[in-house]
Design brief:
Blueprint (H helix, E strand, L loop, with lengths): L1 H18 L6 H10 L4 H25 L5 H22 L4 H21 L11 H22 L4 H10 L4 H24 L6 H24 L3 H23 L1
């Protein structure tokens, strides 16, 4: 019971923070669930389901505010959904420590992108064909790596879109839409290969929906784009440091 309470409280607050950036909290919740004794693939499956729940709630707000860039979101979504299950199956054949080191390296890279890289806004300068190819490539990487690491792919999509010059609020909203479906695909793949703790899913699912609603409100009404970049960057970096500390 104590474990469920800790998981629910952590899920609410972390989901609220990450909903502001549109990435979902799976990449932070996975190490927390592991610390609470949840098996790694079950932790990934639960975190991906929570990603789908939270981003569904937050995306509703983002769509209403017209923040989703549909020309980018749809091609990213299609490829990410296709490749996410492949990443899940590959993860079953990899060592747990290797996965965690890989996960940490990814988090450090993403955090440095958010904290240090300041691109000039590109507007809509590229051709439709170029935008489509870039979106398909990004969707492939996000889907495969997201399924491999159980992170939903949003933490890959947001830094990439911001790095390409998209305004941070629009990058977050666009990634949030993609993560709904990519996370569901990854969840079903993980759930068929590992057991699920349904009491954990129930407690954290409610907390995830509440945290997402609160975080989406903060993002759309209170925060500026630059503030979002710093929030997600420091959270990513702190999570990587925590995982590496546990591996050493």
């Amino acid at each position: 019971m104590e474990m469920l309470a800790i998981a629910a409280v952590a899920t609410f607050f972390l989901t609220a923070i990450m909903a502001m950036a549109g990435v979902g909290a799976a990449f932070i919740l996975v190490p927390i669930f592991l610390a609470l004794g949840v098996e790694i693939h079950a932790a990934m499956a639960t975190a991906l389901l929570l990603n789908a729940i939270s981003t569904s709630v937050s995306t509703t707000t983002f769509i209403r505010k017209r923040l989703v860039e549909w020309r980018l979101a749809l091609p990213i979504l299609i490829v990410a959904v296709v490749l996410s299950p492949i990443g899940v199956h590959v993860s079953q054949r990899l060592d747990r420590h290797f996965l965690l080191w890989l996960f940490s390296g990814f988090l450090i890279f993403a955090s440095l992108m958010m904290l240090l890289y300041a691109p000039k806004s590109s507007g809509i300068q590229r051709s439709a064909r170029s935008q489509m190819l870039s979106s398909l490539s990004l969707g492939g990487v996000a889907g495969f790596v997201g399924g491999l690491l159980g992170v939903g792919g949003g933490s890959i999509i947001v830094p990439a879109l911001v790095g390409a010059g998209l305004e941070p609020k629009r990058a977050s909203a666009t990634a949030s839409f993609v993560v709904v479906f990519a996370s569901l695909t990854g969840f079903f793949a993980h759930a068929t290969l590992s057991g699920m703790d349904y009491s954990l899913v129930g407690a954290t699912g409610i907390a995830s929906a509440g945290g997402a609603a609160f975080g989406a409100w903060l993002m759309s009404e209170k925060l500026k784009g630059q503030q979002l970049k710093y929030i997600i960057g420091f959270v990513l970096l702190g999570t990587a440091v925590k995982i590496i500390w546990g591996l050493l």
